[in-house]
Specification:
alpha/beta; Rossmann fold
């Protein structure tokens, strides 16, 4: 795979595998059949470990041969080894502030920007890959790294109040169980 493909999910119940068809199609696009999960979206290790099991089962069932996880104590060499052994990276649902902070602390945003493969962001992961988002309930802004050149609203439904007037630039609204794809060049 020579170009970057970014898939932004509006939200998915990974325990129920509501977007399984998406991941089966991603496996078909993958050359390595390996996926790397950046799991840092929770304040508690217990919640993270619970989701690791769900991700491992889900992605293995979808057809990935190896499901790797970045660890908070991985060295730069180990991070490089993991990133170069996959052509799909997944950023999960959870707290976008935690995910953004942990990626930035390790300067991984440049590696994500330069990654030539498929980046998938689910909810918090989608926010971090985009220019950011505003929480429709609290009005709080969540920062993103701008790999997708627009702002997003995740878990969008037509009944919710619009927060797009708080953002300068295009905003894409992505409903639950839906996704969009774009390239890092758009």
């Amino acid at each position: 795979m020579k170009a970057q493909l970014i898939i932004l999910q509006g939200g998915e119940d990974v325990g129920k595998r509501t977007n399984e068809i998406l991941f089966k199609n991603v496996v078909n696009l993958s050359v390595t059949k390996n996926i790397l999960v950046i799991p840092w979206t929770s304040k508690t290790l217990e919640k993270e470990m619970e989701y690791r099991t769900i991700f491992n089962n889900y992605f293995t069932h979808s057809g990935f041969q190896d499901v790797l996880f970045l660890e908070t104590d991985d060295s730069n060499l180990e991070i490089t080894r993991k990133i170069t052994s996959v052509d799909v990276i997944y950023l999960p649902v959870g707290d976008p502030d935690i995910l953004y902070r942990e990626i930035k602390k390790r300067s991984l945003q440049n590696r994500l920007h330069d990654f030539k493969g498929i980046l998938i962001g689910n909810s918090a992961g989608a926010i971090v890959l985009s220019k950011g988002s505003v929480d429709p309930h609290e009005g709080k802004f969540f920062s993103g790294f701008g790999l997708a050149k627009f702002f997003i609203t995740v878990h969008f439904n037509l009944d919710q109040e619009s927060t797009t007037e708080k953002l300068e630039g295009p905003v894409i609204n992505i409903p639950e169980d839906m996704w969009i794809e774009t390239s890092g060049q758009d």
